[in-house]
Specification:
Blueprint: H1 6-25, H2 30-39, H3 44-68, H4 74-95, H5 101-120, H6 122-125, H7 139-154, H8 159-169, H9 175-199, H10 205-251
Helix pairs in contact: 1-2, 1-3, 1-10, 2-3, 3-9, 3-10, 4-7, 4-9, 5-10, 7-8, 7-9, 8-9
Length: 253
């Protein structure tokens, strides 16, 4: 548990602001918030659970903005939401019992491969946002997002990157629309993880709400600026966060 002084609360809030912005336009912002909570005195399991409160409220804010801007594809969101939630249940149960150190090393290597693929397939990642465009969800996509849900239930950090990769390379969404879908999928699977972590007494709601306040403000700023920022800025932000995640997973976890 963290003894929450004013200074610590201020640091958590400011960090949350950056995390919310990063999570809304790319992903892996939790690689900032999780180490911060651990550095301040939380054990890894408690930090993993507490961080979910901020992520859940952050996605709610981002989604509200994206929906108003008519960026969210509701049909695709509902279709992919089912396998993600089903995967999150066993993932969260595993997370409360199993250390994630070795798994993260493997994920770090996968993220490096993903970066290379992004650079080698510029057409998919530079696709422009167009209103009214339709996309087909195939059986293979349901399977992919089930396993992404397993990972998301297991560990929040990095799941946004995996979702973006699956949405862009799979059905072919542009990065702006993919970010909206990523937020929706995170929004519906995160409560499942929260319940499981809460039942295992691995959530500090006070710290989680302070972090959430920053996350929500960051998410609002990011969602409002998504169209103006464009896919080019978002693509390079995603690449930067993938490399940052890979380095964290391989060398510092």
């Amino acid at each position: 548990m963290i003894e929450l002084t004013f200074i610590k609360a201020a640091i958590i809030f400011v960090a949350g602001l950056g995390v919310g912005f990063i999570n809304t336009l790319s992903g892996s912002g939790s690689l900032i918030s999780l180490p911060l909570l651990i550095f301040m005195g939380m054990d890894a399991g408690m930090a993993n659970g507490t961080n979910r409160i901020a992520v859940f409220l952050q996605t709610f804010v981002g989604l509200a903005v994206f929906k108003k801007e008519k960026i969210l594809d509701p049909k695709a969101a509902l279709k992919l939401g089912i396998p993600v939630v089903l995967g999150a249940i066993p993932g969260a149960l595993i997370a409360t019992q199993v250390p994630n150190t070795y798994f993260e090393k493997v994920l770090g290597v996968i993220f490096i491969v993903m970066t290379i693929l992004m650079i080698l397939t510029p057409k998919q990642w530079n696709k422009k946002f167009e209103l009214g465009e339709s996309f087909q969800i195939r059986l293979f996509h349901y399977i992919i997002f089930f396993f992404i849900g397993v990972y998301g239930g297991f560990l929040q950090a990095g799941v946004g990157i995996l979702m973006l990769f699956g949405l862009v390379i799979g059905p072919g969404f542009d990065l702006i629309r993919a970010n909206a879908l990523k937020l929706f999928l995170t929004f519906i699977f995160t409560p499942v993880a929260i319940i499981i972590f809460w039942q295992n007494k691995q959530i500090d709601f006070t710290v989680g709400l302070v972090l959430a306040a920053g996350n929500m403000l960051g998410a609002f700023i990011a969602a409002k600026s998504a169209k103006k920022a464009g896919v080019g800025f978002i693509k390079w932000l995603v690449i930067a966060m993938i490399l940052f995640s890979a380095i964290q997973f391989i060398f510092f976890r």
